[in-house]
Amino acid sequence: MNHAVVAVWVLAAAEAVFWPGGELLLLVPLILLTPGMWPRYAASAALGSVSGGVVACLLGRYGIFPWIRRMPLPPWTLRLLGAGARHALPATVVGSLLPVPYKVIAWGYGAGGGPVGPFLLGSVLGRSLRYGLVALVVVRGGPGLIRAAALRPHWLLIGAGALALALLLGLWRLRASR
Questions:
Q1: Number of domains forming the structure of the chain
Q2: If I label 105, which of 15, 98, 152, 164 is the partner at 20 to 30 A Cα–Cα?
Q3: pTM for the full predicted model
């Protein structure tokens, strides 16, 4: 087995539990160096991320949630966690694609107490789509794409705007369902 595939899996799993990113910093250069291996690298990142997500979900359920319940939080916090558990599959797929740290989604889902099956399916779909699309963009764009993206800092603003819009729509939907 290729050590790079294992390294991508380990970094993706660690990122999904506690590490603040890093798997893309290894995934992108590996794909640029060996474009024919992109399916293996993307699959390894997706499986590692899902594995770490399951650990983070269990930490949320058995480690973080009891601690959260003892904190003096506003009542909407627990309603938000419960809403994520009720709409597990679409929430997990969309959350896996957004630039929100996946570990936050996994912790929150675990703390909300939802069933693991829909979370697992949503994670497999969302993370496979995310890493597959990243790999395809890197393979098709090549090194020129990386140089072009580095010159365009407004992409960060577009990503932040998309995240803000998703959060506003989610809060509006939550409020409308009450």
A1: 1
A2: 152
A3: 0.73
